[in-house]
Description:
By secondary structure, this protein is α/β, with parallel strands linked by helices. About 40% of the residues lie in helices and about 25% in strands. The chain has 13 helices and 17 strands. The protein has helices at about 15-25, 45, 80-100, 105-110, 115-130, 145-165, 170-175, 175-185, 190-210, 225-240, 265-285, 305-310, 375-380, and strands spanning about 1-10, 30-35, 55, 65-70, 70-75, 135-140, 215-220, 245-255, 290-295, 315, 330-335, 340-345, 355-360, 360-365, 370-375, 380-390, 395-400. The strands form three sheets. Strands 1, 2, 3, 4, 5, 6, 7, 8, 9 and 10 form a ten-stranded mixed sheet that branches. Strands 11-12-17-16 form a four-stranded antiparallel sheet. Strand 11 and strand 12 form a beta hairpin. Helix 3 crosses helix 9 (about 190-210) and helix 5 (about 115-130) packs across helix 6 (about 145-165). The radius of gyration is 24 Å and the shape is globular.
Amino acid sequence: MRVILFTGKGGVGKTTTAAATAVQAARQGIKTLVMSTDAAHSLGDALGVVLSLAADHPDAPVDPVVEVEPGLYALQLSAAHNVRRSWRSVQDYLLTVLNSVGVDPIVAEEMTELPGADEIVALLELRAQVESGPWDLVIVDCAPTAETLRLLALPEALAWHLDRLMPAQRGLLRRLRPAAAAAAGLPMPELQVMESLVRWREALQDIRSILTAEGTSVRLVLTPERVVIAESRRTLTSLRLYGFAVDQVMVNRVFPQPDEESTDTAWLAGWNQAQQRGLSEVRHSFEPLPIVITPYLPHEPVGADALAALAQARTGEIRDVLTLAPVLAMTVQPDDDGYLLTLPLPLVTAAQVDLKRRGDELLVAVGNHRRVLSLPSVLRRCIVMGATVRGATLRVRFMPDERVWPADD
C-alpha cells in the first residue's frame, strides 16, 4: 500500500494540495482514502462534503469514513477518549509510584498524562486503515509542520520511554514481586500494567514500521516566500533526521508570468518578481527533489471538480502517486579498521549538529529536534572517533574498543 503524508507551514494550502492529489488519484482508478489529522477540520470544506468526526464517544458514527465520489473516501479524526482509557492502568501505577515518593497529586496527574494522546489517535487510525482498509493509496493531511514533526517522531520516542518502564525480565519480576518491591522501596507494577505496556510497545513498533516503509513518503507543501522556504528547509532536515523519506516539494499559489501584452499593476509585478526569486531559492535548496508548481487560480478550489482542475494545472517534475520514493536510511558499513555510520541530513553544517554517545545509544540533535539512535550490536563495542557532515550526510566513524574486542593472536 502507498502512504503519502502532506505537511507544511500553516496557511500554505496543505489541505487543498492533499485533497487535490486524492481526487486526481481516485479519478485515475486508484482506490484512495484521504484522512486529516489537522485540528482545523478543513478537509471536508475543501472537498465540499460534511465529514463526521472519528471520535470515540457513544454518539460517534459506526463508520466515519465518507464516500466523496466513486473511488474516493475521506476521514476526519478527533478526540482521544479511548486511547486515554487504555493508558489508565499504566497511569494509575505511575501515580502510585509518585505518591510513594511524595509528589503532589495534582502535579503527578499532569506528569502521567499520556504524551501526545491526540497524535496517537491519528497514528493508530492510520495503522488500522493501512492494515485492514481496502485502499491502494492513503493520503494524510497532517497538521502544520511543528505538530507533524511531533506526530512522526512520537512512535520512536514513546517506545524508547516504554522500554524503560518495562523491566527486561517480566516473568522473574512477577515471581519476585514482594522482594523486588522491598529492595526498590517502591511498588512494583501489576501484570495488567505490564500487559498494557507490551500492547503499547507493539502498536508503536507497527506504526513506526508503516511510517518508515518503502511505500511511505512525505511531501512538503510551501509557498515561494522567504519565511516559508526557511521553515521548509528546517522541516526537510528534521524529517531526514527522524528517518522519513521526502519524495516531492510542492510550491503553491504561484502567480502566472505576465505576457508582452499584460497590463499588470506595479503591485502584481512586484509579487511576480518576488515569487521568481523565491522559486529560484526553492530549486537551490531542495534539488534534486522533484519540485511541482501549482498556479494561483482565479477562484477558490472547493469541491472535487475544482480540486481535479487544480491538480491538472500543476507543472514541474510531477511523480505518479504510486511511484515509490527512494528510502535513504541510516547505514553501518566497515571502513578501514573500523566502521562508518551514515545518516542522511540535508541542509546543515557540522557546526549545527550536536552529537553525544550515551551507553548503547547515539544522540543526534539539530536545532530543537533530537533523535536517540539505538546502536547496532557491533557499534556498541566501539568508540566514536569523529564525525563530519559531507554530501548532505552525517558520517560518524567508530573504532573497536580494545577493552571489549578480543585481541588477535
